[in-house]
């Protein structure tokens, strides 16, 4: 009887290890998760953005928390010109309608709460899914800027 439990125990341990590793593999090919944004000027962490899938299979991104000087709960998007005008930045959806196209996500838009402008957006994963290149642009992708966001565990 002891002979049977040893192989079973090895299979059970292998199954647990595989189950624990599965979320890591899933993260490598999807931007779904928590991301730390980096300020373009100071190169310091700026905010945490949660990227999730909406009911239509598109990705959206919501500001979960400001970091450093941006960690003020009453911070509002005073420069916004759409329905987000004067709304709290914490909890605000800043990425909308991103769809997977090959090895990147495209077709949606991103809001810069600092200036209130909405840009077309393209997102690409790098470094085994640990970095997200987020490009905001007007018209064609050449006319824009990119930020590198870092995945948070």
Automatic annotation (TrEMBL):
PANTHER family assigned to the protein according to its UniProt record, in alphabetical order: BLL5882 PROTEIN, BLR1215 PROTEIN
Signal peptide: 1-28
InterPro entries found in the cross-reference section: DUF2147
Keyword match Signal: yes
Gene3D superfamilies the record matches: 2.40.128.520
Lineage per the UniProt record: Bacteria, Pseudomonadati, Pseudomonadota, Betaproteobacteria, Burkholderiales
Cross-referenced Pfam families: DUF2147
Keyword Secreted: no
Keyword annotations of the record: Lipoprotein, Signal
Name the UniProt record assigns to this protein: Putative lipoprotein
Residues in DUF2147 domain copies: 33-151
Highest taxon of source: Bacteria
Taxonomic source organism: Burkholderia lata (strain ATCC 17760 / DSM 23089 / LMG 22485 / NCIMB 9086 / R18194 / 383)
């Amino acid at each position: 009887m002891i002979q049977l439990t040893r192989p079973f125990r090895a299979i059970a341990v292998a199954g647990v290890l595989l189950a624990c590793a599965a979320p890591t593999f899933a993260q490598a090919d999807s931007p779904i998760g928590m991301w730390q944004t980096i300020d373009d000027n100071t190169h310091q962490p700026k905010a945490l953005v949660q990227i999730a899938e909406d009911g239509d299979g598109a990705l959206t991104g919501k500001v979960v928390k400001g970091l450093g000087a941006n960690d003020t709960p009453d911070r509002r998007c005073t420069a916004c010109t759409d329905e987000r005008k004067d709304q709290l930045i914490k909890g605000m959806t800043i990425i909308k309608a991103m769809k997977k196209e090959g090895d990147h996500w495209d077709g949606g838009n991103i809001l810069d709460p600092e200036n209130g402008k909405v840009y077309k957006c393209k997102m690409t994963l790098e470094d085994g899914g640990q970095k997200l290149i987020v490009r905001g642009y007007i018209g064609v992708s050449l006319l824009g800027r990119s930020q590198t966001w870092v995945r948070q565990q």
